[in-house]
């Protein structure tokens, strides 16, 4: 009697869409798994311990001046409110995963890593100048400054070039408005960091010219109505 076999994808492997999606964007999902772990630690910690962990892993002026590498790296793996983890998980799947699949893990890491570091340093430089000018209290040097939003803003920016015209222009207008309105109205250092990250993502346009991530093959052939490439 013939043995039943699992349906196979064109490449010959069993068709498992979820596993394929995760394997094609490993950096995104490893990052998300670490954030899930640190969020669990915060959720299970006492008030004093969670406060200590968040401050120790912040990229504020105090930590940057004493442990710059730890502050810059560690701040990318914590979120302040563990309840927001599902929301961030959705954002990772919508923005980070497609960019990593398109460009490949190394190029994706270059984009989000550059944005995270640069936006952090720029925004904290603004805080330092504001403290020196007595525009904000000195306690701003010790605020909790953690999170993944700078890297997300960079992925939002570079993903612009993945969309065909004219949709990319609507997407870009929405992204610019989303980050520019808070920057103009609230003018916080975090809003500045988001704007810087978006610009950095857009500035990495040269990396998109030969994007060849695991999921880029078939989609890369998309062309505009006039026959030119989508990028």
Protein model, in words:
- With about 230 residues, the chain is mainly alpha-helical.
- It has a single domain (about 25-210), classed as Rhomboid-like fold (Up-down Bundle).
- It is about 60% helix and about 0% strand.
- The chain has ten helices and no strands.
- It has helices spanning about 15-25, 25-45, 45-55, 60-65, 70-75, 85-105, 105-130, 150-160, 165-185, 190-205.
- Helix 6 (about 85-105) crosses helix 7.
- The protein is globular and about 45 Å long.
- The protein starts with 16 loop residues before the first helix and ends in a 28-residue tail after the last helix.
- About 30% of the residues are buried.
* Low-pLDDT runs: 1-14, 213-231
From the alpha carbons, calculate the radius of gyration and give it in angstroms: 20 Å
Number of E-state strands: 0
Distance between the termini: 52 Å
What is the count of structural domains? 1
Named CATH topology: Rhomboid-like fold
Helix content: 55-70%
User: Can you tell me the CATH architecture?
Assistant: Up-down Bundle
Q: Largest sheet at a glance?
A: none
| pLDDT averaged residue by residue | 85
Structural class: mainly alpha
Q: Which overall shape is indicated by the principal axes computed on the Cα atoms?
A: globular
Strand content: under 5%
CATH class: Mainly Alpha
- Tell me the series of helices and strands, N- to C-terminal: HHHHHHHHHH
- DSSP summary: helix tally: 10
